[in-house]
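pipeline/complex-builder :: batch 7 item 3
reading input block
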Amino acid sequence: MLGYILRRLGVTIVLLFLLSVLTFAVYLKVPANPAGFLVDVQHSSPQQIAEAEHRLGTDRPAVVQYVKYMQRALHGDFGISWATISFAFGGEPTGVPVGRMVWRAALVTGSLVLGGFILLLLVAIPLGTYAATRPRSFTDRLTLGIAVAAISTHPLVVGLLLQLFVGNRWKLLPASGYCTVSRPSAAAVEQVRRFAPTGTPLPCGGVGQWAWHLVMPWFCFALFFIALYMRIVRARMLEVLDEPYIRTARAKGASELRVIRTHALRNAIAPVVTMVAMDIGMAIGIAMYIETVFGLPGLGRTMIRALAGFEGYDLPVILAVTLVAATVIILLNLVADLILLAIDPTVARKRGRGLSRLVGRTA
Amino acid sequence: MAVANPSRTPVLARDDDGLESARPQGQWALAWRRLRRDRIAVACGVFLIVLVFAVGPGAPLYGKLVGHGPNDLFPYAVSVGLRPAGPFTVTWATSEVAGDDPFAFTHPPPPQGTPKTLLLLGADSQLGRDEFLRILYGGRVSLEVAVGAAILALLIGVVLGGIAGYFGGIADSAISRLTDLVMAFPLLLFLVMIGSLFTHGLTEWTFGGLLNRGVFQLILIIGLFTWFYPARLVRGQIQSLRGREFVEASHMVGASDARVMRTHLLPHVVPPLLAYGTLLVATNIMIEVGVTFLGAGIKLPTASWGSLLAQTWGSILNPTAYNPATTQPWLTICPSVAIFLTVFALNQFGEGLREATDPRSVR
């Protein structure tokens, strides 16, 4: 058991190392010169460009750059976003620290993914259970049919249509934007009102506003996964309801509700909980679409802005987002495996997954 | 898809005791019979064939019929207020607007004798191109990407999975570790990263006009990041077959490793791979739509289903603001429906194929 955990941790470290090297390698292959963040490359002298490269540290050999970056990252300092960096006052770099940027983005993605999964489980578990107690009935077929349709809908398509009709045309829900859970300070609101370009929405906050702005994103998110989870819950429930101890429970006179709730459901949904942890990688990918459509400043959108910004490749931000996302994914996968191991020691060896699950993971 | 010869019906032979019994049939004939009984799968298969013909030879044929191409501009299909025309619009087939009065409420009619043309689904944007034709040509690009990437992934998967499953030992553990590592990658983040950075070089590879610009690069990226699932599938299958008697027997009569793999093991792997490949095509369509929408895939003016969606919505750094006077909801609905129907049909057909080719499935 301990050996297994240690081996998995070892794999985790190797994977993170490979991932950081790969991201760095991609950066080295990018044609744009990062000096463009500081000076106008086309209209400056070679000395100015060399100076800018020196300030950013990109004139050093790639290996030195990599080691320096990783050293600082391991101490929790991800550097300063190149898109905002400046050396105006005496050469000390100022700008938005990447650590804070990624943390804020992670909070947004976290609230999207967490809320989405809660909504998903609240819908999928009762529906799957209900379908399993009446196999081959009309309700069963209807829920399965909806599930099949849901798995074929692109989250982008759902998001765009919802935004267009529910958000923009009928104005039932906010079409885009994000509100923090905590209320913004009066100073922050005043600053946006005074200095931000016209049309910038004022910062909003509060639990109510936060949830109100996330209703459509949560729905999109849950809809994509609902088919997978409902099918698994239904299949597991059908299996469990065949077990002898269910017959025993019925024989001793327990009500049907009690049989389902206490005896069957508990055993049926244990693997579902670990599935949530395993699907977190795909969830971050799906969240990227939803964040883009609904204008949520989450990890995926931060990444795309860092990639597609006007100046070029904002390496510190991209490395930080990739590493943070990968760490979360890998650690949650590890947790999922450990939970499975704790429930059933034989499971860990053969993680059986159906075809649709394999397909689902790549989407 | 030439699964089997459809004209071959089971021949009933009379046994000595007068009972009718079917002559033993090959696996493909059996699969074809099972598949034919699955009405949903047959309907989806017919739809897919129609779709392939529509986006392949159908697109230029339709263009000939209405007399214009996918990139022709029809400013008369866009109102003065810049709202693209809706479905079933008949407009003047000219790329120039007569008169240039900026205060006109409508465009002045073109000179006498200008021919008219039909835009079945209206104009695609403020440029006034034929939306229906662009959906057809876009479907061709999307399908090219999806099928190409699926074939590439299956090829790599079969080779590596076959080696890992057949030889075991070091090869197996090396390949298994590799699949484990890459399965934990934040796939979509990576696709977007590579796709949005490398916009030259590979993008220009069109194989003499066979593929559209950017298609080959997308095929490569998607294929190289999705071969892990088929590889696991093949490895598992081969591993379970390796110790069976028929493999031992063929070894005993002196068959080489290559021959055993090709003639004795490969036929077992093909049916599940075929079904899996169909599902993979569906997933790849979703990935293409997503990656292109996020600005990392097919570049304009080439149409693809992702770029058709993105063009209406705007770009990530600059989303188009909703304006009830200029937004044409059909431009979001039409590509969405095309994507949904195709992915749905592929999923259902793949599922049907899997059940039909699985000898253990009870139907």
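note: Residues 347-363 of chain A have pLDDT under 50 and may be disordered.
queue -> next item
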